[in-house]
From TrEMBL:
It comes from the Eukaryota. The keyword Signal applies. The gene is Arsg. Its main location: other. InterPro entries: Alkaline_phosphatase_core_sf (IPR017850), Sulfatase (IPR050738), Sulfatase_CS (IPR024607), Sulfatase_N (IPR000917). Transmembrane segments: none annotated. This is Arylsulfatase G. Its EC number is 3.1.6.1, 3.1.6.15.
Length: 530
């Protein structure tokens, strides 16, 4: 009857209402570095250091089958900002402090799309997508940048953070040249940038979390005062290797636990600031860039149940740099009062790749043309209307085995297939040998989260799922081959290293004799990042 049609129409309008926004929402994307799935208390009961993140989970939705787009830094970040895997956007491994290139300039970033849609855009924290010339964040769609252009262990400091093995402080003026130490950057100080200006070199790591929080608050305030919606990309230094924590080591988890608590407090502060500018106006998305850095031993995070047991039996780590679950399954939370359901746990298969198309859709903007995207608009999952994400999710090689960036592992529903396996460096120094599998190893993650026992090739289950996996794999490779793909420039030149004063040992900005002003009141150095 006409009345039934009218009632049905009203119901449908009501269901759609959360997506019909009266104004463009603000977006805050917080990306933690090398955080383990089990580092979130809401995920893993043994973890006690994340009360603010756990509260975020209670007031929003927790995603327990959420994945990074690669198991190492630069490729994962490039995928977040483009919605495309490294085999498409060109970023397949990490950039160096002397890199001339970065994320290819023909790739369109999320910040560029949102700025064109009227957003004020800011990036705070770790960049690691190229800092030289037009690869700097200010040239990639961000109105404002404050942070370290790569990882915070890629340069020396006067008060080094925790590392394993420990790294020495920066050389002082007049000190004798020292022998280079493996895995330590001993000759060039770590820079802190505000836009293109180096404001501190070397960085004072002990105050870095506070400075990031303060700059984030200032950016949000400026954007709110302007009346424009904002997009803040906050890429934390935590938990790569712990900074110098302001608090004593936490009982049970020591230095790592104290650093985890510091990160948790920082996220809590950002949530509080966002809420103070209108609760319900801002979507906050927290995720990790990849799994824990296992070779750092007690300075690495928790995997939870995703231990990659099959690989561990053969040597090496199954975390960062690998395609095992511990390398790419990361904690993820979305908080948006009145829009995203509270106290909900989603089992949808999602990825950091989905951030780009989802935020673009929510902003009312359009995806860039003439390219394929690996990410999906998952707003129906965020709003609780659906719990279906990717049917197929690709996991690129990230350094442990196989050619970096190549796709040799994939997920299809609850099944995980490996055409190549290998272990990264473990705490004991071992690495697992690269092995190629034809036919592939297949695990059923529904009953084997530990990836301990692959399906028997002769079993009915294996024979039933193999054709579907083979088709999905072939279709994915064909789609990539037919796409407009980019190639990153990985060439290096020492002249590209950010250095505020080449006359001073270690590129020291403040005081030729090693004096460093208090980081919160120091005079800004008018040197430009070359």
């Amino acid at each position: 009857s006409p009345w039934a049609v009218l009632v049905l129409a009203l119901v449908l309008v009501g269901l759609w209402a959360p997506c019909v926004l009266s104004r463009q929402p603000n977006f805050i994307v917080i990306l933690a570095d090398d955080v383990g799935w089990g580092d979130l208390g809401a995920n893993w009961a043994e973890t006690k250091e994340t009360p603010h993140l756990d509260q975020l989970a209670a007031e929003g939705t927790r995603f327990v089958d959420f994945h990074s787009a690669a198991s190492t830094c630069s490729p994962s970040r490039a995928s977040l900002l483009t919605g495309r895997l490294g085999v498409r956007n060109g970023v397949t491994h990490n950039f160096a402090i002397s890199s001339l290139g970065g994320l290819p300039l023909n790739e369109t970033t999320l910040a560029e799309v949102l700025r064109e849609a009227g957003y004020s855009t800011g990036a705070i924290g770790k960049w690691h997508l190229g800092h030289h010339g037009r690869h700097h964040p200010n040239s990639r769609g961000f109105d404002y940048y404050f942070g370290i252009p790569y990882s915070h262990d890629m340069g020396c400091t006067d008060t080094p953070g925790y590392n394993l093995p420990p790294c020495p402080p920066c050389p002082r003026h007049g000190t004798a040249a020292r022998e280079a130490r493996k895995d330590c950057y001993t000759e060039v100080a770590l820079p802190l940038l505000e836009n293109v200006t180096i404001v501190q070199q070397p960085v004072e790591l002990g105050s870095l979390a506070t400075r990031y929080a303060e700059e984030a608050e200032r950016f949000i305030q400026r954007a709110s005062d302007s009346g424009r919606p904002f997009f803040l990309y906050l890429a934390l230094a935590h938990m790569h290797v712990p900074l110098t924590p302001p608090l004593p080591p936490a009982p049970g988890r020591g230095i790592y636990g104290a650093s985890l608590s510091e990160m948790d407090a920082l996220v809590g502060r950002i949530k509080e600031v966002a809420d103070s500018h209108g609760k319900g106006n801002t979507l906050l998305w927290f995720a990790g860039d990849n799994g824990p850095w296992a070779q750092k031993c007690e300075l690495a995070g928790r995997l939870g149940p995703f231990v990659g047991a099959w690989q561990r039996q053969r040597g090496g780590s199954s975390a960062k740099q690998t395609t095992w679950e511990g390398g790419h399954r990361v904690p993820a939370l979305v908080y948006w009062p009145g829009r995203v359901p509270a106290r909900r746990t989603s089992h949808a298969l999602l990825s950091v790749l989905d951030v780009f198309p989802t935020l673009v859709a929510l902003a009312g903007a359009a995806l860039p043309p003439n390219r394929h995207f690996d990410g999906l608009d998952v707003s129906p999952v965020l709003f609780g209307w659906s719990d279906v994400g990717h049917k197929v999710l690709l996991h690129p090689n990230s350094g442990a085995a196989g050619k970096v960036g190549e796709i040799e592992a994939l997920r299809l529903a609850q099944y995980k297939a490996f055409y190549t396996t290998g272990g990264a460096m473990a705490c004991d120094g071992s690495t697992g040998p690269a092995e190629w599998h034809q036919p592939p190893l297949i695990f059923n993650l529904e009953r084997d989260l530990q990836e301990q026992e692959p399906l028997d090739v002769a079993s009915r289950e294996y024979q039933a799922v193999l054709p579907a996996i083979s088709r999905a794999y072939a279709q994915a490779l064909q789609d990539i081959a037919a796409d407009n793909v980019s190639v990153a420039d990985y060439s290096q030149d020492p002249a590209a290293i950010p250095c505020c004063s080449v006359q001073h040992v270690g590129c020291r900005c403040h005081g030729a004799h090693g004096a460093t002003l208090h980081p919160l009141v120091e005079k800004r150095t008018p040197q430009l990042c070359l």
